[in-house]
Design goal:
Blueprint (H helix, E strand, L loop, with lengths): L12 E7 L8 E6 L2 E5 L22 H5 L4 E6 L4 H4 L2 H7 L4 E3 L1 H14 L6 E3 L5 E4 L2 E7 L8 E5 L5 E4 L18 H10 L1 E5 L18 H10 L14 H14 L8 H12 L14
Helix pairs in contact: 6-7
Length: 289
C-alpha cells in the first residue's frame, strides 16, 4: 500500500492583497514563501467621479514592498489591461526587479520603462506552459482564455502544495486561436500534484453561474459589412480589448474592406501585434493623414 506523503510544515507562507479585493481594479497579491516575495499583478483603479473629483486613477500603498524590496523575487503580470498592469511603473520606480508577462504585454511594459526612465528591470516573456525557477521556487505558467492574447495563470510551488492564481478568465470551450486557448491539462496536473490554495479575481464573485462568451462579434460585424457594402462603417472599440480588435481586422480582411486606424494608440497596438506574428494585410490599411 502506497504511503500518503505528509506535506512539510517548515515553510512560512503568507498571502495577502494590497488591492483588488471587493473592488474593480487595483489588483495586487503578495505571496511570501519564507524570505521570498512574489508579486502578482499591479493594477490601477478608476475612481467614482462622484466620490473622487479630480483624481485620474488610484494605486496601491507600496510601503511594505518598498521596505522589503530586496526580498521581491519577481512581479507577474498576467495580461496587459490597466486593472492588472497600470500601476506597474509606479511600483518599479521604487522596487526594481524582474517582470514576467505575456509576449504582447512585454512590449507594453518595455514602453513604460523607457517612458519613465526606469533602470534595473528585466522583462521576461512568458510562453504557453512555461516552467521557470524564480527565486528558490518552481513556477508553472498555464494559458487561459481572456480578451488579451497570451494571458496566463500561474502556480508557485511549495512543500505544502501549489499556490495557484487563475487570473481573470473567460469560459469559452469553442475552437480558438492558440494565443487565446486555455490549457486544462496543465491545470488538472496541478490539481493532481496538490494545491494549497487557489486565488482568483474577485470581480463578479457575488454572481452565480457561468460567464457568457459574449466577446465574439464576428458574425454580427460581417453582416453589417455585407449590408453596408458601399458605405463607411465606424467602429468604436476599447483599445485594450485586443481580441475584439483582431476580430474587426479579420472581418475587414475577409470582406476586403479598407481600414483606417484613427488613433496613434491603436496604430501602435497593431504594430506590436505584427511583432508577435499577427499579420495585417498592408494593402487594406489607409493612412489617416
Amino acid at each position: 500500500m502506497k504511503e500518503e506523503k505528509i506535506p512539510s510544515l517548515t515553510e512560512k507562507i503568507r498571502i495577502f492583497a494590497l488591492g483588488g479585493l471587493d473592488e474593480d481594479g487595483k489588483n495586487l497579491f503578495c505571496v511570501e514563501v519564507d524570505e521570498s516575495i512574489y508579486v502578482i499583478e499591479a493594477g490601477i483603479k478608476f475612481p467614482d467621479n462622484k466620490e473622487s473629483l479630480g483624481i485620474e486613477f488610484i494605486i496601491q500603498d507600496f510601503t511594505y514592498l518598498v521596505e522589503n524590496k530586496n526580498r521581491v523575487a519577481g512581479i507577474f503580470i498576467t495580461h496587459g489591461h490597466d486593472d492588472v498592469m497600470g500601476a506597474l511603473p509606479y511600483l518599479l520606480k521604487q522596487v526594481p526587479c524582474d517582470v514576467y508577462t505575456a509576449p504582447l504585454a512585454v512590449k507594453e511594459v518595455q514602453k513604460m520603462i523607457r517612458q519613465e526612465h526606469i533602470t534595473g528591470v528585466r522583462v521576461h516573456s512568458v510562453k504557453r506552459n512555461d516552467k521557470k525557477r524564480i527565486g528558490k521556487r518552481r513556477v508553472v505558467f498555464f494559458p487561459i482564455t481572456h480578451a488579451y492574447p497570451g494571458t496566463f495563470g500561474l502556480a508557485i510551488g511549495t512543500d505544502q502544495g501549489y499556490i495557484v492564481y487563475s487570473g481573470e478568465f473567460i469560459e469559452d470551450y469553442d475552437d480558438l486561436d492558440d494565443a487565446y486557448r486555455a490549457d486544462f491539462t496543465t491545470i488538472s496536473e496541478l490539481g493532481n500534484e496538490g494545491v494549497l490554495v487557489l486565488l482568483q479575481e474577485s470581480k463578479g464573485a457575488e454572481r452565480s453561474g457561468h460567464t457568457s462568451p459574449s466577446h465574439r462579434i464576428s458574425p454580427k460585424l460581417l453582416q453589417v459589412l455585407e449590408t453596408h457594402e458601399n458605405k463607411r462603417v465606424f467602429v468604436s472599440v476599447y483599445t485594450q480589448s485586443v481580441y475584439r480588435i483582431q476580430e474587426i481586422i479579420d472581418c475587414c480582411m475577409a470582406s476586403r474592406r479598407k481600414m483606417v486606424f484613427y488613433s496613434k494608440e491603436l496604430r501602435d497596438l497593431v504594430g506590436r501585434l505584427k511583432e508577435i506574428g499577427y499579420e495585417v494585410d498592408p494593402s487594406l490599411v489607409i493612412d489617416p493623414a
